């Protein structure tokens, strides 16, 4: 299968970037987007040229490291799939693929298609912790949690932090990411003491680095973990709860 690729090339965060054309005459439909880039890089290395930089790790759809725009869509054309799981099965022979980094003011480019997504980490650093009594671990049955709450918490804990939701949003909002974390932590039996402070600090950090929610739902459409759009509501819900109970925290 022949493909024409337009791949983003940028030497560094302060350099001007551009698209570089690459023709691939021997692509295989079973290849993922990342394997396609591996193939391109192998050929460049053999020719003594610099390979394209991009981020990846587990390539099993669970680490959240990979992140690309493929023809303007985060990760690729398949809905709710990370870049490492996006195959070329639905790509036509002779088609052009434009591959570039996640685009957001919160994601400065480091090199080529590698971006700095530490703004998401800073949101978690503001509230992603719980208070526990040090010492002997308590018996598992001393922390009561019903099955429905546990399943709902796990559904939102599935967020892998890839940041595709931000790249998909016209306003560069991270409400789906932050909402998923707030829902997950609010449902757990541990960490109740920090719930109000967590909400205030995480939402403040969210609004410092990211835009306002567009309410269109592009984020949920590309989320590899399938986080429901309802998670967005947790941002305002948890902030309002924290404001009403500020004296108790």
TrEMBL record:
Q: So what EC number does this one have?
A: 1.3.5.1
Keywords recorded for this protein, A-Z: 2Fe-2S, 3Fe-4S, 4Fe-4S, Iron, Iron-sulfur, Metal-binding, Oxidoreductase, Tricarboxylic acid cycle
Specify the 4Fe-4S ferredoxin-type domain's residue ranges. 150-179
- According to its UniProt record, which cofactors does this protein need? [4Fe-4S] cluster; [2Fe-2S] cluster; [3Fe-4S] cluster
GO terms assigned for molecular function? 2 iron, 2 sulfur cluster binding; 3 iron, 4 sulfur cluster binding; 4 iron, 4 sulfur cluster binding; electron transfer activity; metal ion binding; succinate dehydrogenase (quinone) activity
**What are the GO BP annotations of this UniProt entry?**
respiratory electron transport chain; tricarboxylic acid cycle
Stated family: Belongs to the succinate dehydrogenase/fumarate reductase iron-sulfur protein family.
- Cite the PANTHER family for this sequence: SUCCINATE DEHYDROGENASE, SUCCINATE DEHYDROGENASE IRON-SULFUR PROTEIN
The name on file for this protein is: succinate dehydrogenase
The scientific name of the source species is Corynebacterium gerontici
Q: Which gene encodes it?
A: frdB
């Amino acid at each position: 299968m022949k493909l024409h690729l337009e791949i983003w090339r940028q030497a560094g965060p302060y350099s001007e970037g551009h698209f570089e054309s690459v023709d691939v005459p021997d692509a295989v439909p079973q290849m993922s987007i990342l394997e396609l880039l591996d193939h391109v890089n192998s050929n460049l290395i053999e020719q003594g040229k610099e390979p394209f930089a991009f981020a990846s790790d587990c390539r099993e759809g669970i680490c959240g490291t990979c992140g690309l725009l493929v023809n303007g869509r985060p990760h690729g054309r398949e809905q709710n799939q990370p870049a490492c799981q996006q195959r070329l099965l639905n790509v036509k022979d002779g088609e052009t693929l434009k591959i570039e980094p996640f685009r957001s003011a919160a994601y400065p480019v480091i090199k080529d298609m590698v971006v700095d997504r530490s703004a998401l980490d800073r949101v978690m650093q503001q509230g992603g912790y719980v208070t526990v009594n040090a010492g002997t671990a308590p018996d598992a049955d001393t922390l009561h949690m019903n099955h429905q709450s546990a399943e709902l918490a796990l559904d939102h804990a599935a967020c892998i932090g890839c940041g595709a939701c931000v790249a998909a949003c016209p306003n560069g909002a991270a409400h789906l990411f932050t909402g998923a974390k707030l829902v997950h932590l609010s449902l757990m039996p541990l960490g109740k003491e920090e719930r109000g402070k967590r909400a205030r600090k995480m939402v403040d950090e969210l609004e410092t680095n990211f835009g306002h929610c567009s309410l269109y739902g592009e984020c949920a459409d590309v989320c590899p973990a399938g986080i429901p759009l309802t998670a967005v509501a947790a941002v305002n819900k948890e902030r309002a709860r924290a404001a009403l109970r500020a004296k108790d925290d």
